[in-house]
Amino acid sequence: MARVDIIMPQMGESIAEGTLSKWLKKVGDEVKRDEPIFEISTDKVDAEIPAPAAGVLAEIMVKEGETVAVQTVVARLETEKGALAGSGKREAGRGDAAAGERREPGGGDTSSARPGAVAAPAPAPQREVAPASAPSRQQPAAPAIAASHSGNGDSFEDRVRTKSSPLVRKIAAEHGVNIASLQGSGVAGRVTKRDILGFIESGASTASVTGGSRLTPPASRLPLPEPWPGDTVEPMSKMRALISEHMVASRHTSAHVTSFIEIDFTRVARIRTKKRAEFEAATGQKLTYMPFIIKAVTESIKAFPVMNSSVAGNNIIYRKQVNIGVAVALDWGLIVPVIRRADDLSISGITRALNDLAARARSKKLSPEEVQEGTFTITNPGVFGSLMGTPIINQPQVAILGVGAIEKRPKVLTGADGEDVIAIRTCAYFSISFDHRIIDGAIADQFLAFLKKTIETFPETGL
User: Fold this and answer.
1) Which pLDDT belongs to residue 444?
2) Is 252 an active-site residue?
3) Options 256, 420, 440, 445, the catalytic residue
4) What angle, rounded to 10 degrees, do the helices at 290-303 and 347-362 form?
5) What single DSSP character describes residue 14?
6) By the 8 A CB rule, do 39 and 24 touch?
7) Which of 63, 136, 217, 362 is at 20 to 30 A from 441, Cα to Cα?
8) Distances (CA, A) of 435 to 309, 318, 320, 330, 377
9) Residues 219, 296: Cα–Cα separation, whole Å
């Protein structure tokens, strides 16, 4: 008999840890190779993890709800074969993890995205910041984080801490925090995203990366509300806590502005009605409005490439790939699977990709790669009846499109004889939240106007 280690996988190159949210097997259960054995939650995806080999679950080493570093052994299988395969997978995982530490996210080719584009420069020198004493307040303390003794980045501990995820390093750079001067709550003192956000929000003074001015976060948070008699108190799920962190970090990062426009879907509605039966017979897929919207967005991005970019310090990365993320509401949270190279797909191709990703998101079958490297996001609260909204940008993107309810409305139109008439039209309000650091209101509004024209003049042969 041999034992095979089951490890916490690295679900993406920027992921340093994961939360084991649920065991699907218990000690003593027989497990088939590739059979789901436990569920994990990260800041990218909820997923079921398959067994690396067939055997019997001999030992569980990480309990439900625990967060551990990637490559941590979470359980062991007892099996007569597959030990070498399991070991090999583990070593390969280590290699992938190491490679992930050396890569930055979104490492696509940007050399031809803009004339005169250059490789991203090394990050600006960071200033060492000593954390202020924790303000007194009646609430749970932020994750333990303290200044190191040296802070010069030369010791082993400093080197481990600076190997935080790219997202953590980005947040630190934006707030002028030297990661090597901090003691995080991750493995070997690794600074996690929760650590860096907790430190920044704790009231410590930080220096601007791009200048010498001082940025001073609020001295303290508002006091936490207390439960009253009869109230129910439930801890946030891992996914909900991570969504909370992402939303707060995005508001801290981007200068959010939102514009609105009304779009007439009457033409698209007629095309959809006319072609629906033929389309569904040919593809086996239901024809909704969303593929038309995604197709129009890809055409609009080609006309306004800054909407498909990211901010890297004082540089703008114009993404060559057009990878459209579509928010999917789940019973337990929200996830944004990505349709890669959506600009290369037809309406039928977009429909297949969209329906497949949404179905697998709801059944926790998405792979890490399918929620990464989005370049522009669409969220559709209109399916719940909402008319419009001001969505928060999905970092490190610079814009997100909100789709309101598509419904029939009375509209004033100009008739053939020049007279004004009231007609019934199928319309929707769209919103675009954009990062005003690099996108001016005029550009965002021109993008919306182009999107409106593209949808309202959609060709019948465009399927």
Assistant:
1) 97
2) no
3) 440
4) 110
5) T
6) yes
7) 217
8) 10, 14, 19, 27, 13
9) 46
According to the model, what pLDDT value does residue 357 have? 94
CATH number assigned to the domain covering 257-462: 3.30.559.10
Non-local (6+) Cβ contacts of 241 within 8 A are none
Question: Which burial class, exposed, middle or buried, applies to 451 when counting CB atoms under 10 A from its CB (0-12, 13-18, 19+)?
Answer: buried
Could you tell me the two tokens for 188?
Answer: 């070997």
Per-domain residue ranges for the chain?
A: 2-102, 141-221+237-253, 257-462
pLDDT of residue 395: 92
Dist CA 142 CA 134 (whole Å): 9
The segments of the chain whose pLDDT lies below 70 read 11-15, 42-45, 81-166, 180-181, 183-190, 201-221
| CATH (residue range 2-102) | 2.40.50.100
Question: Are residues 64 and 21 in contact, defined by beta-carbon separation less than 8 angstroms?
Answer: yes
Which residue, among 62, 59, 94, 64, has the nearest Cα to 79 in the 3D structure? 59
For residue 50, the model assigns a pLDDT of 87
Residue 92 CB neighbours (<10 A)? 10
Topology match between the domains 2-102 and 257-462: no
Residues in the chain: 463
Output the pTM of the full model.
0.61
pLDDT, tens digit, 9 for 90 and up, residues 374-389: 999 999 999 999 999 9
Decide if 380 contacts 403 (C-beta within 8 A). Answer: yes
What is the structure's pLDDT at 140?
36
| Residue 256 among the catalytic residues | no
Catalytic residue among 34, 154, 344, 436: 436
pLDDT attached to residue 185: 66
- Residue 396: is the preceding peptide bond cis (ω within 30°)? yes
